[in-house]
Design goal:
about 130 residues, mainly alpha, 4 helices, about 0% strand, elongated
């Protein structure tokens, strides 16, 4: 029980810190190619959603999915919503709203990515290392 919460809390803490850093940087500096980065983040979240759906069908042991599903769902939904909002807004520097939006997008995107990597590593450890016990 504690391990499930610990994984998610650690992922959210890392994502929050990096999201704050990106928000501060985007408030002060024009980030070239930010629209492309937002589009790639949106596409990555959609791809992870499709891969997660395929994994749910293939996985027989749901322990790994149970460990990472809350963070993964939060990250995917948050990334898709904030990316759509960011793509529909005009990105300018010295705008607090845009800085917050880009910081949230970074945090949600990292939550999605780190949770998915944790899920894949958990599946690999359970399936590949179970014969060593």
């Amino acid at each position: 029980m504690f391990r499930k919460d610990c994984n998610c809390i650690l992922i959210l803490a890392i994502a929050a810190v990096l999201g704050i850093i990106v928000g501060v940087v985007s408030f002060n500096v024009v980030i070239p190619g930010i629209i492309i980065a937002i589009s790639i983040t949106l596409a990555l979240a959609a791809l992870i959603l499709v891969l997660l759906t395929a994994l749910i069908v293939k996985i027989k042991d749901y322990d790994c999915l149970c460990n990472y599903s809350k963070c993964l769902a939060l990250g995917i939904v948050g990334t898709i919503i904030t990316a759509v909002i960011a793509l529909s807004a005009t990105i300018v520097t010295a705008s607090v709203a845009i800085a917050i939006l880009l910081g949230l997008l970074t945090a949600f995107g990292l939550t999605t990515l780190l949770s998915f990597i944790g899920l894949i590593l958990c599946i690999i450890n359970k399936n590949c290392c179970s014969c060593m016990n």
